[in-house]
From TrEMBL:
GTPase that plays an essential role in the late steps of ribosome biogenesis. This is GTPase Der. It comes from Rhizobium favelukesii. GTP 1 binds at residues 9-16, 56-60, 119-122. Gene3D superfamilies: 3.30.300.20, P-loop containing nucleotide triphosphate hydrolases. Associates with the 50S ribosomal subunit. Keywords: GTP-binding, Nucleotide-binding, Repeat, Ribosome biogenesis. The gene is engA. Belongs to the TRAFAC class TrmE-Era-EngA-EngB-Septin-like GTPase superfamily. EngA (Der) GTPase family.
Length: 472
């Protein structure tokens, strides 16, 4: 993107609504409750012919530095300092407040371009608030309605005037066309299997119960206080994405809101936050479930892991706050035993003790993430699968139903991410679930596929005499 724009203002003036309007998606949570946004959220904005990065920020308020509002203000000020331009949003419907005046003074001291945006200008009686905005000394306000999309052309012109034509429309770089190695595909029945592509960006969602240390963990990865943290539970509301490189590979991490038991989620805002976290899980390729090592394996922890696996995502367990454990060896042995016993559906799942506060175990966690993603993307040739299937039936034949034994004839992998297999067999409807578990456990052991969900589907050949039976 050519430049970065920060949306700032006091709470409940419509910053997140404007953010969603500019990115063209409902990424940021929007509610009538003031102070919904807490972290700064970036997005790719389009405004007529302009393309830029937009950053949604928390509402600015006067607060003590150590308080939650004070830490939110620090995050917003960091976004202003990193941006090329600020959109200072005021509410034309309710008019100015002393907080608006203080914020205008703060923006003026920054010495960066500022566009005064008078939102909710479509409302009856908004003219007084619009003209009152001139008193802030930031130039002519731009009237818009973020909710209804009015005034977007005027906002575009104001951005171009503030930055200049050259900055708003940088020249496009010429891209040289070079020879590219095109990977050769192998036949489905061949012995060759595609290698794991470690050059693609990896999407990782960080999930867990409230106050497990998810945001602190991501900040430690980034090496900066990019996400809002603190002792209060439930600070994170939006699912915020951040990018960074680990050993030359791009990692896109999603910080999510803490997920409590469904019965405890009553407020509308928390329901929106949890729904946003569920979307992040479905969008991610791998999910790190963060446990509080001081109180691990709460019932909600098990529900979250089960949810991730049912969605077909690869999972890694991170036992956080390891720096607070007094007897690490004994606790680690106990956690391994409980992992195997309480999560039988995730046999072999990788579990790493870490400390987001000190950075202990983060390299090992990242290596576990890469290894698990490799298994999640794994493909096995059809020839190997059918030789394996024949051996499995010799060791443990399928059961007989009504005196006739079920025959498993043919097996192939139909997809990866997660690995899914199709088996052609007779009487697939009569095959017990226990035999499917036997095959899944065999796949895990013989093809080194721990910790990821494995799907097996059955298909019975069509009966050519079925139509005749129906006629009789």
């Amino acid at each position: 993107m050519s430049f970065t724009v920060a949306i700032v203002g006091r709470p409940n003036v419509g910053k997140s609504t404007l953010f969603n309007r500019l990115v063209g998606k409902k990424l940021a949570l929007v509610d009538d409750t003031p102070g919904v946004t807490r972290d700064r959220r970036p997005g790719d904005a389009r405004l007529v012919d302009l393309r830029f990065t937009i950053v949604d920020t928390a509402g600015l308020e006067e607060a003590h530095e150590e308080s939650l509002q004070g830490r939110m203000r620090a995050q917003t000020e960091a976004a202003i300092d990193e941006a090329d331009l600020s959109l200072f949003v005021v509410d034309a419907k309710t008019g100015l407040t002393p907080v608006d005046t203080a914020l205008a003074e703060m923006l003026r001291r920054r010495g960066k371009p500022v566009i005064l945006v008078a939102n909710k200008s479509e409302a009856r009686g908004s003219d007084a608030g619009f003209y009152d905005a001139y008193s802030l000394g930031l130039g002519e306000p731009t009237p818009i309605s973020a909710e209804h999309g009015q005034g977007m052309l005027d906002l575009r012109d104001a951005i171009v005037a503030a930055l200049g034509e050259e900055r708003a429309f940088p020249p496009k770089e010429d891209v040289a066309v070079t020879d590219v190695d095109i990977p050769q595909s192998t036949g489905a029945d061949g012995e060759e299997e595609p290698a794991y592509d470690d050059s693609k960006p990896l999407r990782v969602a960080i999930v867990g119960r409230p106050n497990a240390g998810k945001s602190t963990l991501i900040n430690r990865f980034l090496g900066e206080d990019r996400l809002l943290t603190g002792p209060e539970a439930g600070i994170t509301r939006d699912s915020i994405s951040v990018e960074w490189d680990w050993r030359g590979r791009t990692i896109k991490m999603f910080d999510t809101a803490g997920m409590r038991r469904k019965a405890k989620v009553i407020e509308k805002l928390e329901k929106l936050s949890v729904a946003d976290a569920l979307r992040a899980i479905r969008f991610a390729e791998l999910v790190v479930v963060v446990f509080d090592a001081t109180i691990p394996f709460e019932k909600q922890d098990l529900h979250i892991v089960d949810l991730v696996l049912r969605e077909g995502r690869a999972a890694v367990l991170a036992f956080n706050k390891w720096d607070m454990i007094e007897d690490p060896q004994a606790v680690l042995a106990d956690l391994r035993e409980k992992t195997d016993r309480l999560l039988p559906q995730a046999r072999g799942i990788r579990a790493v003790p870490i400390s987001g506060q000190t950075g202990r175990g983060l390299d090992k966690l990242m290596q576990s993430i890469i290894d698990t993603d490799e298994v999640w993307n794994k493909r096995i040739s059809t020839a190997r699968l059918n030789r394996w299937l024949e051996q499995q039936q010799v060791q443990h034949p399928p059961p007989a139903v009504s005196g006739r034994r079920i025959k498993l004839k043919y097996m192939t992998q139909v997809k990866a991410r997660p690995p899914a297999f199709m088996i052609s067999c007779t009487r697939s409807d009569a095959l017990p679930e226990s035999y499917t578990r036997y095959l899944i456990n065999g796949l895990r052991a013989d093809f080194d596929m721990p910790s990821v969900p494995i799907r097996i589907h059955y298909r019975s050949p069509d009966n050519p005499y079925e139509s005749k039976k129906r006629r009789t």
